[in-house]
Amino acid sequence: MAKITLDNLAHSYLSHPKSEDDFALKELNHDWVDGEAYALLGASGCGKSTLLNIISGLLEPSQGRILFDDQDVTHAPTAERNIAQVFQFPVVYDTMTVRDNLAFPLRNRGEDASYVASRVNEIAKMIGMEAELDRKARGLTADAKQKISLGRGMVREDVNALLFDEPLTVIDPHMKWELRTQLKSLHHEFGHTMIYVTHDQTEALTFADKVVVMYDGRVVQIGTPQELFERPAHTFVGYFIGSPGMNLFDAQIDGQTALINGVKMPLGAGFAPAGGRTQVGVRPEFIRLSDAENGLPAKILRVEDVGRHKIVRLDVGGTQASAIAGEGDEIPSGTSRVTFDLKGVNVYADDWRVSPQGEAA
């Protein structure tokens, strides 16, 4: 297990990058705590796998350093970093049995045979492959092979970090839930530092202690699922986390009110003047349909009943928005007004969250 430090880290796939736009991974300075589980979350191409491969040693950064427990490993090969990595698609030895695939990392390090047998049986039970231990990997399905890859990554107890690069892509949905649960259980039992790359917010939020949200090659927020939901630090976080994502309304901010489409809306807190494009962000859970005269005029476009609740799609002065209503709530037809639950209001200037006056940092 190790604390992982990213010191002035950046990477470009170009030989001579000339501007920040030439970097696939823009400058990062972060300490990742020893023994915590992190998820790298973001859309395809945002730099998640690039960062993971730098941590593992498969890629050397264009600038900066990476440290394990304050030891510089920037130029150290993968084998010297004492990490285990599981890739998106299965990497197994087809001619070996499942048992031998799982045992390989331990035998390669000269572990005692009785310990190897015990650990292999433990991992096989964890991934649900006890009955296939003596089968050759060649004849197994893609999801079974990926379970072997996961098991081989988890079989060692002494690693500095376990790295997972979208490892559940080929796993069927029910098994995904089981394996995520097992990975979380493994983390609680052994306290490995774990880093899990995914574009699936459900995977990230259910697996990780802290979610690292990436956008356009940079980390825009590191936080708990609750922090990401309640106080998105960037409009992308608000959009990407939640279903539907956060609503954004162009606004002029004046102290404790916002002028949206010519209507003054309370913000519930005071905000200093901010330059650039200013917006009010409100998640659908905090949008209220109302007949109040001081609400924002809105046209109801359609209602989607998803069983547990209803998603009301709205046109608010030309801005597409969503509200969530209870399953038993009566939805007015045609035109209505919307108000905000003030505990769910955030203000943004040029996409970055503005802290209300008096809020603790």
From TrEMBL:
It comes from the Bacteria. GO terms for molecular function: ABC-type ferric iron transporter activity; ATP binding; ATP hydrolysis activity. InterPro entries: AAA+_ATPase (IPR003593), ABC_transporter-like_ATP-bd (IPR003439), ABC_transpr_FbpC (IPR015853), ABC_transpr_MalK/UgpC-like (IPR047641), Mo/tungstate-bd_C_term_dom (IPR008995), NA-bd_OB-fold (IPR012340), OB_MalK-like (IPR040582), P-loop_NTPase (IPR027417). The keyword Magnesium does not apply. PROSITE patterns: ABC_TRANSPORTER_2 (PS50893). GO terms for cellular component: ATP-binding cassette (ABC) transporter complex, substrate-binding subunit-containing. Keywords: ATP-binding, Cell membrane, Membrane, Nucleotide-binding, Transport. Residues 4-241 form the ABC transporter domain. Belongs to the ABC transporter superfamily. PANTHER family: ABC TRANSPORTER ATP-BINDING PROTEIN, MALTODEXTRIN IMPORT ATP-BINDING PROTEIN MSMX. This is ABC transporter ATP-binding protein.
